[in-house]
Each structure stands twice: as structure tokens, then as C-alpha cells.
Amino acid sequence: MSKHAVITRALRAGGLALGAAILATATVAAPLPAVGPADAANAATAAAPRNGLLAEYLFTQTTGTAVANTAGGSSTVGAASVVNGTDALWTGSSLKFTGGAKTSTADWVRLPDGLLSGKQSATITVETKFDASMLTTFNFLWNIGSDSTTSYFFASMRDKARTAITTSSNGGEANARATASLAADRWYSVTTVLDGAADTLAFYIDGVKVGQIATTLEPSSITTQTVDAIGRSPWPDPFYKGEVSAFRAYGRALSGAEVAAVSDADAGLHASTFTTSAQAALDAIQPIAMTDSSITLPTSAAAGLSWSAPSAGLALGASGTTLQAVQPAPGSPAASGTVTATATVRGVSASKQIPVSIAPAVEAADDYGYLLVHFIEDSAGYAEKIYLDVSRGDDPEQWDPLNGGKPILASQLGTTGIRDPYLTYNPETQTYYIIATDLRVFGGDGGSGSCTSWCYWTKSASTKLLVWESTDLVAWGAPRSIDVSLDATGVEVAELGMAWAPEATWVDDYYPDGRGAFVLYWASNVYQNAEHSGSSYNRVLWGATTDFTQDTYAYGGPFVDPGANAIDTTMIQDGGTTYRITKDNGLGKGIYMESTTAARWWESGTSWTQLQTKIGAAWAGGNAGGVEGPAVFKSHSEDRWYLYVDVIPSTGYRPMTTTDLDAGWTQLTDPGFFMAPSTKHGGVISVTKAQYDTVRASDAATAVSTDLGSVELAQGSTAGALADALPETADVRLAYDRGTASRPVTWNAASVDLTTPGTYAVTGVVGTYGANLDTWTGAGGSTAWNAPDRVLSSSRAVTVGATVVVTAAPSGPAFTVQAETRCVAGKAVLVSQVSNTGDAAAGISVVTPYGSKTVQVAAGKTAGQTFSTRLASIPGGDVVATSAAGSKTAAFAARACN
């Protein structure tokens, strides 16, 4: 285990004793005095707006089950009622929700029917705190709808809190999400704004917008509103567990300022608790271990954190959310320092110094960092493209999206959709490959008749896989495809349904002669005839290839076939054991793992031992079928493995971990884990420090300067001279406040006419992730999946410019000529010398008289050359040198020698 990995895990995951030993020279200061309001009761400085208020339920009573609507004004909405309520559930400032199974007699609040019926827009805001169990359990904080699981409008505190609306069940939910999980047992103002005029759904926490999505659905889209509720879901989800002190519903979209006013008003109900929450947030911050020269500083689910006062040797980035340092040289002792954290909870603040250790840099060839390829599920905005994330330093539990979280690659081939990408490497050719499913779910061809969407796709969609390749993990070429139902000559070898979820494992000695190849595996239905009639099921098949081209591909046959639907196989090897992790969709096993010690593990007849089933089900509320798309990788710095499981339909990856593969996987609930929402079904590779630095240096959205100046060339210069004259690199501003870097520039100089003097503007594309082909358009600018003449392009390329000045050729000869007679060994000899001093004089011809005739003594001389000629002694005359730029003459006289 490397030293920097030990420091990272120990300090981030709670190794305080080790942290104290490493940071013996750092001083941990006592908490600084709170800088929030002297009187926490003054936290509420604004009143909740009344305009458009339909219902206001303040849970401040101490008895009863009826809760009055205090909205006043013209509201005709009636009281709410506490179902299964008792007086013991009232605290005087809130109502307790006990939680429990849907079949239990837990309490919940029934809101009046039709609360938002007919409304184009609405705002719902709730003051609540929730039990920690809600973070890992499906729940509805509130719901507008009925007991239908098709049409509903709700908010949930699970995982990363969200609000959503749908009229086509969970697969059609338009979700606006927080980017980070909230903290249990802390009061929050949770607000949903559905603006039908703007076609947006926004989500606010404590008056701050944390998520927004486009949707054409409106409150009136929920046509049946007969079980409007607080704390109850139409699904078989458990009842909500926590407390609620206020619920308001507006028949309009509140502005951001108005949402903040509601939060401020409700904060006053619990202001006395916020100092404790702020201090608790500070106490939860572990000593900071820098294994990279720039790190993203910790955030808090319970409080807003700001940073200040870095000690000598440390600096805050411009955004204030990154910490930067010059790492000690490899092999040197770690350095140390401090930085001050300030936690603020709804206007109340506290501060504390946090110790920092700066680990020495690692060597360029050392394993350091990870790269994740994935796609994003987004029913409201087409997102089925290729995305890349990079680990924060060497931490496999924290990830930063590259390219501003935007796609890096798109496909104009086949269905134009990309799902289930995987990243792999051929060590013989040092080439990286991304392979992926050719499937567009959103806005593509969904079939017709009685078999549509997944029925149609799995039966009749593309049997091709999409392929990209790169040698540096930054610049990726255009996509190509390989048809897994055909052999190398194009002959069909299997009647397959859609090919999906491909992965590949490199085998060093796949061929008998010792050459290596990829064993490629993917899921498909297998049919008996070309019509694909009759029933089938998904099984995992295999083939072999060296480069994911049709020319080297050979079909193998079944790899995982339990007699029922099996998909999404991923694999990892440790020592002589191969571990196979598959999603079962037919036998109730969910994601399950097997192992074998067979050297040729892909061949039929291999014996596999089942080790674990229902892996990751805890992330889906115990539903084994609620997770898929596993991605497995090993920490390269310790004996620990990670398995990311994709919580469907749109939550994305959540982590499992183990230190013993044979013992199986356990849920990783480290609060420090960070991955952007909806990061789905991909693969992870380890990179070296040099590769990590290249990845980070290529993650830029802007150039430091878009004008790289001018260059001057003489008329008649070559294209090579122009290429040499233009700047090779441009400085770019790096993402995540990591400073600047120099990246190569590819210039388009087609506009420059080197034969004609003038001033020409040229444009260059800087070598960043944004330079890749991430979008396409068809004829007439169409983006329809089947538009003809689709052409790839880059929508996020960083471009720079320069000016090329072509100067006119000189008007006179660009050379000199000299001639004289000298005595050499007693004889008179003519010595002539021509010096070419410029490009324009290329191709000089030199003649000299010799008796009664002239003799050409040199021709074709090029720029910059100097030469001499000698002839026998003759009477005086002229040496003449001529070029396209003119001619020059040098006279010489006869000379007598003794």
C-alpha cells in the first residue's frame, strides 16, 4: 500500500489517531466564536409571502388530529387531518412522523383533495427534519395525486433529495435534484416550484436553488388528486419518518427571493438549534490530506462551508472551494499547515481551524487516480452520450465530471444513442478503447404495435457495438461500429436481438502462438430464425477481437446462460481467480457474483461458484431488481475493491466495497463519497500520475487569451515554414480552480495564401476534452435520430486565433557577387564568390568569361548558401550572377604572376 493512499483513507475516513501522528507539527485550534446572530431567535427576519397562498398548515398545536388552514385571504381550501394521529406526536412546534411499513398504522397527514387541481403553476414548501433512515429508504415527504403509481407530483429526502412530477410512472419522472445528500436530524426548508409558464421544475433547499429541469407537465397534469398527503407515498414505500413544522402550497410559482423569504420565516421556529448544527458540521470535518497539488475542499450536508486563512505554503483557489499547495518532492516528508472552516446554518455561523497534511508527490509512472466512463439517464433532456469523470486525486470515492459535466463523445451512427459504455486497454498496441451499446431510448425508434420500447429494442434493435479509440485518454477519434452477429467476412453467425452492455477483458495469451486478444462479452437475445419469432431471453455472449474491428472479430457463443434473463456482466481478476458479476432479471438473484480458477474462463464447460446474490439491493430499498450495470475495480494502493451499482431508473451509481472478494460486497455509506447525480452504467480504469496530470491539464473550457499574436513570413514561404511559425501551445484555465496549463493547438491555416502578400486570420483548436466530437446535425440542421447526412462536430472546443502576415518578396537581387584574380602557385587564378542573402534569390546561375566564350560555373543554388569558383588565368572580364530577383555583375582584371 502506498503512503499517500494510507494518508488519504486514514484522514478522510476517520483515522484520527494516524492523522494526529502525521500532523504532529500542525496546531488544531479550538473552535472560534460563532459569528452568527447574537440571539438565534432573530434568525427569522422575513415573513412568508401571502399572495397566491392556497394552504398553510402550521403544526404548532399540542392536541388533536385536525390542522387548520391559516392561509386566509380568498383561500377556500379546508383543514388537513392527521391519520393515525395521537397527542403524543405533537411537540408544540412540530408534528412527529413515526415512519414504518406501508402496511403499518404510522401517522401521515391527509391534505384536502384537489389541492392543485387546474393549476398551471404551483409552489410547495415544507419545514422539516428527517430521520437518517430516510437517506437510504424510498419515501415521499409529500405527494399530490392518488394511489396511482402512474401520475403523481412529490418530493423525497432519499439519497440526494429531489422533487419530481410524472404522468407515466417512475420511468417518466422529471426530476430536479440536490447535488449532495442532506443531513439527518437538522431542520430544512424544502421547496418545489413548478412553473408552467416557463416549463421548469425547480428545487430549493433553505431558500437556495439546488436543482432545475425542463418539463411541460403542470400541476393540472395530475388529473386525479384524491390522496394528497404529507408523509405517504402511492408506492409501497415506507411512511416518512421525521418531523414537519410548516407546510404551504401556493397556486403560483414563487420567485427565488420569495422562496428565500419563506425559508427565513420558518427558520425562526428552530433558530436555537442552528448553532449546534453548525458546530456539529465543523466537528465532522476530518483533517485534510492533500495527495494532489489542488484538492476540492470538503462540503457539509448539514451546513454551508466557507474557507479562509490558509497558513504559509497553502492557498485558496479563486472560487474559495479548492486548496492548493506545492507538494514536497517524491520521497520527502509530508508538509503540514491549517485552513479555517466556517459553517453556516440558516444565518448562524461557527468557525474552526482544520489541520492539513501535504503528501509528497508521486513519480510520473506510479499508479495514481482513476478515470470513469459513463452515460446519463435523462428522460427530459437527451443525454445518451459518452461522459468521463476523474477521481479527486487518488481517491476512488470522490469524482469530478470532466468537460463541465457535458458529453465528450456523440455517435451519428445507427440509432445515434450511446448507453452502457466501457473503457479498456490493449497493452500490445498501447491503445485505449471505449465500447458501448448502440441504443437511443429517448427520442429514438421505439417500435410500433404491441411490442414497443424495451420489448422492441431487445428483440429487433441494433446488433452493433459502438467503438472509439485513443492513445492518450484525451483525444478520441470518430466512432465506428462492429456487428457482433457477423464474422470477419460479414457472414451472419448468430440470430441475435439487440447487443447491449458490452465489456471486454484482455487476455495476454489468448491465441496459441502467445498473442493477446480481448474476450468481449455482451447481452443479447438468441433466436432460431431470421424472423426472430418465438420466445427468447437475454443471455451474455462472448467473442474475441484484438482491436474491435470486424476484421479481427470472431463470435464465441454463450458465456452466462442460466436459462433466464441475464445481462450486464462485469469482471475482475485477483491472482488466479476470475470473478464474474452479472445482473439476473429472471430468477430473483439481482446482481450476483461467481468465481472460477479456470485459466480459459470464457470457454464453455467452465465451472463457476456462486458467492453472493442481491448485491447492492440495499441501495434500492431492498429491491434486488432496482440495481444494475455493475462496475468493478480495485484500489491500486491497498487491498480494497469497489463495485458501483446503478440504482435505476435515474439515481445512478452507488458504492459497494470489500477487502475480500470471496466474502462478497457490503454497502459503502461513507458520507465523503461524491459522484454527480445520474452517473450511470460505465466502467473505471486506473491511470498513472502522468496520465492523471494530462487528464486534469486537458479539462478546460476557456483560453487564457484567445489572441496568440502574429507571425510574419516572406512571400513564397512553404506550408512547413508556416506550421513552424505558428504557436505550438496555448494556455487554458483549468476546471475546478486548478490554475492554468499549456495545451497543444491544431491550426487551420487554409485561409493563408503564401504566394500573395497580405494579412490573414487563422483559427486553432486547443487540445482539451472539449475538442472531441460531442454532437451532430443532419441535413437542414436536423437532430432527429434518423436525419440523413449526419455530421459530427464539437460544441465545446476551446478556440484561439492568430494573424499571419505574408510580406512581399524583395525588389532587388537578394545576393552579392565578388570576383578577383589571385596568384596561386605562380599562376593567375580567377576567384568568384556569390553570397545568397535571402529566399527571393533562390536558384542563382553564375557565368564567367573564358577566353572568347562564357562558362556557367554554378546553377540552382538556394537561399543562404555561399560558394566560390576557380578557373585558369584569363584576361580580365565580368562574372555575372543571375536570379529571378535580378542580376549582379562583378568585374575583374588580368593579373601577371611571377
Automatic annotation (TrEMBL):
InterPro entries this protein is in? Big_4, ConA-like_dom_sf, Glyco_hydro_beta-prop_sf
From which residue to which does the signal peptide run? 1-29
Q: Could you tell me which residue ranges the Bacterial Ig-like domain spans?
A: 725-766
Pfam families for the chain: Big_4, Laminin_G_3
Give the UniProt keywords, A-Z.
Answer: Glycosidase, Hydrolase, Signal
Source superkingdom: Bacteria
- What is this protein called in UniProt? Bacterial Ig-like domain-containing protein
Question: Which species is the source of this protein?
Answer: Agromyces allii
